[in-house]
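Posting this for the archive.
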Amino acid sequence: MTSVLASVSQGGRIVIPADIRHKMGIDAGDQVLLDWSDEACELRVFTRKQRLQHARDLVNKYTQQQQGSVVDELIQERRQAALDE
C-alpha cells in the first residue's frame, strides 16, 4: 500500500498526485467513486472501470462452478416451466 500526503484546499478539494492518477487510469474530467467506511474510518477511491471489474469478478466467483451459459440455463428452465403448466 502506498501512502501519500495531500492537502485539502478551499472548498474541500483534494488533489490526487499524478503518479497515482496514472496508475489508476484517471484522466482530467473523469469521475471517480468514493466509498466511506464508518467501521474502518476509511475513504477509498475507485474508477468506474475498477468497480465494474469488481462486480464481474464477484459474478464469476459464483458462476464458475456451473458449466455452460447461465442465460441458456434460464431459458431451459422457463421452457420447462411452460410445459409443466
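The chain has a mean pLDDT of 89. Residues 18-84 form one domain.
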